[in-house]
Amino acid sequence: MTVLASLDADMTAQASQAVRPIDSSRLWSKVAESRAELLPVSAATDLPAAEAVSKTPAPRLIAEIDSGLQPDMEVLYAGIESPGDDNIRIVTAESGDTLASILSDLDIASKDVKYAIRALKAVFDPRQLRRGQRITAELKPLEYAAPQGGEALSPAEKRELLTLVIKPSVDREVTLRLQPNGEFVAKETVLTLSSRDYRVDGTIETTLSEATVDGRVPSAVSSDFMRLFAYDVDFQRDLKAGDSYEIFFRRYFDRFGDPVKEGEILYAALTTSGTERALYRFVTEDGTEDYYDREGVNARKFLLRTPVDGARVSSGFGMRRHPILGYSRMHRGVDFAAPTGTPIMAAGSGVIEYVGPKGTYGNYIRIRHNGEYETAYAHLSRFGAGIRMGTRVRQGQIIGFVGTTGMSKGPHLHYEILDGGEQVDPTRVKAAGSQRLEGATLAAFEAERDRINKMMSLSPLNGPIASANVSSVNFSTE
Q1: Do 156 and 109 meet the contact criterion of CB atoms below 8 Å apart?
Q2: Using one digit for the tens of pLDDT, what is the confidence trace for 352-402?
Q3: Which of 333, 434, 443, 450 is within CB 3.0–4.6 Å of 416 for a Cys-Cys bond?
Q4: What range does the domain containing 334 cover?
Q5: Does 273 lie in the same domain as 368?
Q6: What's residue 86's pLDDT?
């Protein structure tokens, strides 16, 4: 658990004297945070909210102790940067934290912890707490005790929980409040987000990644864009200076106008050597979202050509002088150089046949895609969550991370495609054909394609994009 701030009225450098640390390793810090950094509580909304009340009596409210806070936490967080009270705690959950452990570390009475979690369960499963989520708590000391032989009063060890706010996602907020009758009431509120569409294009001089950075395209959108074309484009061999891209995408904003979530790519185009590939987002009647070219042909292929975003091909398939052994031998795959920890995607859907150390390959994964094709990934620094033998994975799923284990001179992915058990050149494998929409589904796609084209014609090209890069803000990633 990381404590982000303990907000105090004076906001001076004497903060450490005003707030007692939770324990010797976790000290309260005091910062003046902007309202965009505070975990906001929903303002009034006309959207329906689910409520649950715990009927188990909670510890009584000590009315004599006045925190000085406005009782309406919605008003408190609607734009006030400092509530003026050091009983507000803003905490960031870390790996291994539970809601119970966080509340206990705040010195909240065990009875409050028990009753609060019981009430919350009606609208929020505490097991869904994820690393990076923020929790805001309003506390009061349960009582004050006079120290023996002294005149000053010292706070008791345990605190009373008055209000708790958890934001499981950018558009969902859970609030728990202690009522005057001693019960905790939990309420879930669906937050209203506004959206804006952006149309950006650019010319590629070095790499596609650098071109999108120059165009101020959020990194999450850029990564999604590259995945769309990873079936057909080798980003190292196929791209040349003067090629171009265009993206039409959506972003979502909170009530303060701050970007909180990257939305969908509605249209994506990549022009290489004078040939344009254009894709449109379309959701079929059964709710499946995918991308199709202008004629309604699905962009998805059997195998990705590039299983690592933004990587550089450092060694191709064929005879080469081995960088460690020093003599020529057959290189039966393609090496993609990338920093340690770069995510590796499954090139296609299938079942994990092998995962673990494998001699000179180091950490190694092999996936069987059908009766003919397998793919293999070597020198990984570590494996993805839940990746084990027999696990079924989907195309594009993160299965591991680039490393330099085994016989390796530097961080890279060694990628192989096996046809009937024999390694073949990944750049020469012809993937199976893509699905083409037909009938009423094709007509619905054509209507959506025309709608997106009209929206783009009304959107300014390369307009200003909010500077915050949402992909670097961790709301709930695990």
Answers
A1: no
A2: 999 999 999 999 999 998 878 899 999 999 999 999 999 999 888 999 999
A3: 333
A4: 312-424
A5: no
A6: 63
